[in-house]
Amino acid sequence: MTVTRDGDNWTTEYELDRDAPVWAFFNSALLEETHLPWRPDQWRVVTPGVVLERSAARDILRTTDGGPVPRRVQIAFTPRPENLEAEYEVLVFTDGSVAMPSGLFDVFPLASVAAAADVPLDLTDYPLETGPSSVTWRDRAGPILFRGQRVASATAVEAETYVLFGEAELAESEGLVTVIDPQLPHWIGAAVKDFAPSIAEVYARRLGPGQSDRPTVMISWNGPTPGRTSMGGSVLPGLVVMKFDGIGVVEPNARVRSMARWFIGHESAHFWLGQVVRYERARDAWIMEGGADLMAILAVKAIDPAYDARAELQKEVDDCIRLADQPVVEAAERGEHRANYACGAVFAMVAEGAQGRATGGDWFDFLRPLIDANRADGVLTRDEWLDALDAVSGDTTLRRDMETLLDQGSADPARMVAGLFQRSGVAHRLEMGRVVLS
Q: Where are the alpha helices (DSSP H) in 93-220?
């Protein structure tokens, strides 16, 4: 693929390596608010006889006559900063710069439209017929920013990064590189520059080296939208991407500052839990997301003693209980991505409780041996995580109940979570059936 910006005109040119009646997009997330596909509204196929549409859980390219998609396909598109469900999003800066995730355009062939219904969300074990795509990015107005460098164009396979088109300013310091929207409220940029290095120091001290000791942070600003207080983001190797939106973040206050710090802490945590080690399958996202949640809560509390960690932990408990009536491992397929964060954090709290009883340690003490043991292969599996829990707790019923919540869900999640907390030493009480941390 070749992605080109020419003023306000954006195109991607596909050179496909074989004849196939259907090509499906790897990245086929839905819009967060409407649960509708975003591509049909933003992308327009220029090549005659080829259509872009939704089929089952995938966006696809197909021909109107059922024959093979032409080897060369051109698409015109207009990038917009939409909120997507658990996927990398386009960032649009107020100066016109655009940051685009490199995996946005990747496709793979299918034998038919009907075959799209049989493609799982997690492609880990799916027999793909093609290798990774080579993508070239270029901007006719001038250089692009690729992996921290300004270049005339860039070509890469599985780049796993964001590509920045435009003149957004790059600022470098000893431990951080930032690209910040010029209209972003000043206090947010200052908080990131001040807080990100501090929280990375906590993680490095407790967990050893992370994936990057000098990350790039890109922050976009969607404006002071009335009635909104929104923060979003993601992480890729060496890169944290953040997006702020809403009137609620224009002026600093204690609540929003705490939210921003936790947010920085969560995304930075993925340089360890997500980059140094990653999950084996997408259904195990609870390991990374919930673990990063607890890392962030503990690290922010260590830096800011006034931070209300218990309130954040209570939210994790409440959300997990609300969502664990169905299998946590199927949460993404239901669009309930929050379950991976909340229940993953609850499981991490159980591990921390068991670690505290065994050695007086905390979540970082439980996590560090798992990270160190898997630095070579870069994968932390569900069994390795649960085996570590068995070893530190000496109580296999903890694993049993976690696996029930993961694989089956429970008709009474509150009872199961309370039992996990009681047997692992997490202080709590029951108030009219609600599990309340104490």
A: 186-207
Q: What is the pLDDT of residues 25-63, one digit of tens each?
A: 999 999 988 999 999 999 999 999 999 999 988 999 999
Q: Say if residues 396 and 390 touch (Cβ distance below 8 Å).
A: yes
pLDDT digit string, tens, across residues 177-201: 889 999 999 999 888 888 888 999 9
In contact, 25 and 83? CB cutoff 8 Å: no
Longest CA span, the chain = 67
At CB < 8 A and 24+ separation, what contacts does 174-177 make?
Answer: 174/214, 175/200, 175/213, 175/214, 176/214, 176/215, 176/216, 176/217, 177/148, 177/214, 177/215, 177/216, 177/217
What CA–CA distance (Å, rounded) separates 89 from 80?
9
Strands 149-151 and 144-146 come out as antiparallel
**CA dist., res. 144 & res. 235, Å (int):** 20
- Tokens 């086929």 belong to 28
pTM of the model: 0.86
Please say whether the dihedral angle defined by the alpha carbons of residues 11, 16, 21 and 27, taken in this order, is positive or negative.
negative
Q: What residue spans of 270-308 are helical by DSSP H? A: 285-303
CA-CA-CA-CA torsion sign (254, 256, 258, 261): negative
Contact between residue 19 and residue 33 where contact means Cβ atoms under 8 Å apart? no
* Residue (of 117, 101, 93) closest to 22 by Cα position: 117
Q: What whole-number distance in Å separates Cα of residue 187 and Cα of residue 250?
A: 8
